[in-house]
Amino acid sequence: MSRIGVFVCHCGENISRTVDVERVAAEIGKLPGVALATDYKYMCSDPGQGLLKKAIAEHRLDGLVVAACSPRMHEKTFRNAAKAAGLNPFLCEMANIREHCSWVHEDREEATAKAIDIVRLMVERVKKDKALQPITVPITKRALVIGGGIAGIQAALDIADCGHQVLLVEREPSIGGHMAQLSETFPTLDCSQCIMTPKMVDVANHPNITLHTWSEIENVDGYIGNFQVTIRKKARSVDMDKCTGCGVCMAKCPQKKIKSTFDRGLGTRPAIYVPFPQAVPNTPVIDRENCTYFKSGKCGVCAKVCGPGAVDYDQQDELITEPVGAIVVATGFELYTINEKPKGSPIKGYGEFGHGTIPDVIDGMTFERLASASGPTGGKILRPSDGREPKQVVFVQCVGSRAREKGISYCSKVCCMYTAKHTMLYKHKVHDGQAYVFFMDARTPGKSYDEFWRRAVEEEEAVYIRGMVSRLYQKGDKIVVMGSDISVGVQVEIEADLVVLATAVQPRQGADALAQKLGISYDTYNFYSEAHAKLKPVECATAGIYLAGACQGPKDIPDTVSQASAAAAKVMTLFSRDQLEREPIVARVNERNCVACFYCKKVCPYGAVEEKEIRDRQGNLVRVVAYVNPGVCGGCGTCQATCPSKSVELEGYTDEQVMAMIEAL
Amino acid sequence: MHETKEKHDFEPKIVAFVCTWCTYAGADLAGTSRLHYPSNVRVLKFPCTGRIDPVFILRAFQRGADGVLVSGCHPGDCHYMAGNLHARRRFAAFRGLLDFVGVDLNRLQFSWVSAAEGGKWVEVVTDLTERIRAMGPMEEFKALETEECWSGELNSPELQEAYNNI
Ligand code: FES
């Protein structure tokens, strides 16, 4: 027979005002198995907890029910008290007679009757409770950072500075991301490369950072503290150990006319290339699609001119598997290609803007390359079509963003500011030029942001027109921009030399596929979802995975860097312990009953169910059963409700416990 | 301040199966906001609606529940990602079965109540209680349980007919 102690709390008057607590205690005291039932004014207070501890010893209690507030409030408190008195904390339950009873009912008679019921059900449950031991899992103190833009770089440096090993994986040949492409940054107009490249070099030289560029995540297994990641190191065709980065191969490559993606198609590069001169690592990659040797087997110039003999045409993709304990996802963004309607996407293109067909209609990032001192024009603003200096430039904001009818309803956050910056950069370079901006609103929250925008309007004389553009078309060598000015209610037509579209910020192509490998969730646009919009902005719902930068939502550089450091701090918090302790509310398989249908495996949202082979002493396979990895199990219990042979039980919510309550109804 | 409460002849027993993360928290919120609702409901807490086995509902009806409520996080908000979606499918199928065994489906209610919806919890519980009160006590299932208990022999005319139809 159980010896259960029941403690009914008055909660000052919060409970006792509507519930006759003495009567509850008296009624419950009559139940079989209840060794003690008493009431007290404040159970959660020190003397209240003392009472509980004393009773455990005195009455040799083997189960506790504290009838008080919501378990979400004080379950931890009372379980800790039980533990301190030597009782397994999982043998202590709370009956919620405050939030679910005294506060929501007025009739004393009814409320008391309900309170008795609530406590009675809990007593029956506690009779079936089992002592549970917390689960500890070891932690591999090594982090994986996916994405080598400013977010990934910052997170990697922070974690590495703390003394932990970091693997930084970047899918391009160099780290740097979009920030390396920018000219100058708002609101200070400092040169992006000047602040970015030193950080890139820090990454390359850091003893705790292992850099894998030209690499992608192939597979992720495991769980917090114990992930196994498989990285595909794409064939570079250049031996990284031998290459000295002299650059002779690039100079001698006869194939020079390939459009540079880094320069947004404005400049060209050879088939063996680094994306930009300050690339880290400074080891070229052969673009096999465009290389004459790979296409026709002839050429081979780069191999001939390479002094150290680093060029290796036979290199293959390599798969490496590495153990890590935490993952920071920092895959960043890309710009909406507005002319195209992506396949299978609700997003409609902007054919009416002629992007991609009219050469002088460009997007914001292309303008960055034009304005960049290291860009294809050496920082001169010149039209892509004929290389002339544009005298009238029209900037169009919110192209794609905030356009529900086109499929994207969010604000891309950075466009207002970078367009203001563009008008300034333009004015600084083309003194007699005029910038026009079509805008819906100027959104400038951020330190010194509004001042910056005002400067563009008031000092740099950009003409801001509130309204949208309906159409763009080529007329001679001009582009006619048709739009409206809603503040005065007129149609506007501007003959522009260059049009710059502030296109929407979107997650990277393939963000969803990566999310599926990682087991993290994402929204309808493929931005990764944080665990809580306010209080857990850098954690994923999947433990041990953290987010940094624009992969979670459009962000400017300061926000990205802050989030990256926050993610790093979370990783360091995790790594500050040697073992991870977690609630033992996990599923366990009864191997004798399991019929190996693996429905549980199909429904498990965590991929925690594995197929386990049972072998006899000779090593012959006897049968296969399900096995739930307690480190991975999240404890939802879906497997148990699904199992047709009732062979899996969720600890803490077993059928026995639930049925005991239902039987007592 | 106290309205005179009308006394009813029949107070139905309502059992609510809820998930910890949303509906239980929503019910807590109703408490902290001092909202009021009928005291007929008894709440059973589960980690997730995904854990709720249809057998629990059947047994609750057998054990005297006149109405059952199952409530969890809104689709897409499940703390465990997809538990409520599995639950939704499972219960869609289960309703058919319940109908077949002769339980009036109006006695079973599914809803999504989030941790922020204390008001909705009150609404759902109040509506269900009133509805069940109007329907009266649930007798058919209990009657079914005792009267039509299977004799263990495979010779009833219905079974015979079912066999012939295979
Ligand atoms: S946690 Fe609420 S339904 Fe899954």
CATH superfamily placement of the largest domain in chain A: FAD/NAD(P)-binding domain
For the record, the CATH class of chain B is: Alpha Beta
Distance between the termini of chain A: 21 Å
Percent of residues of chain B in beta strands? 5-15%
What is the element layout, followed by pairings?
The complex is a heterodimer of chains A (665) and B (166).
Chain A: E1 4-9, H1 21-29, E2 34-40, H2 46-58, E3 63-68, H3 71-84, E4 92-96, H4 98-102, H5 108-128, E5 135-138, E6 142-146, H6 150-161, E7 165-169, E8 184-185, E9 190-191, H7 192-205, E10 209-212, E11 215-223, E12 226-233, H8 248-252, E13 258-259, E14 268-269, E15 272-273, E16 285-286, H9 292-296, H10 301-305, E17 318-324, E18 326-329, E19 333-335, E20 361-363, H11 364-371, E21 392-399, H12 415-429, E22 434-439, H13 449-458, E23 463-466, E24 469-475, E25 478-485, E26 490-496, E27 498-503, E28 505-507, H14 511-518, E29 545-547, H15 557-575, E30 579-582, E31 587-589, H16 599-603, E32 609-615, E33 621-628, H17 638-642, E34 648-650, H18 655-663
Parallel strand pairs in A: 1-2, 1-3, 3-4, 6-7, 6-18, 7-10, 18-29, 20-27, 21-22, 21-27, 22-23
Antiparallel strand pairs in A: 5-30, 8-9, 11-12, 12-17, 13-14, 15-16, 19-28, 24-25, 25-26, 31-34, 32-33
Helix pairs in contact in A: 1-5, 2-3, 5-18, 6-7, 6-15, 11-12, 12-13
Chain B: E1 14-19, H1 20-32, E2 41-46, H2 54-62, E3 67-72, H3 83-100, E4 108-112, H4 118-135, H5 140-147, H6 157-165
Helix pairs in contact in B: 1-4
The structure holds FE2/S2 (inorganic) cluster.
FE2/S2 (inorganic) cluster (FES) binds at residues 19, 21-22, 48-50, 72-73, 78-80, 83-84 of chain B.
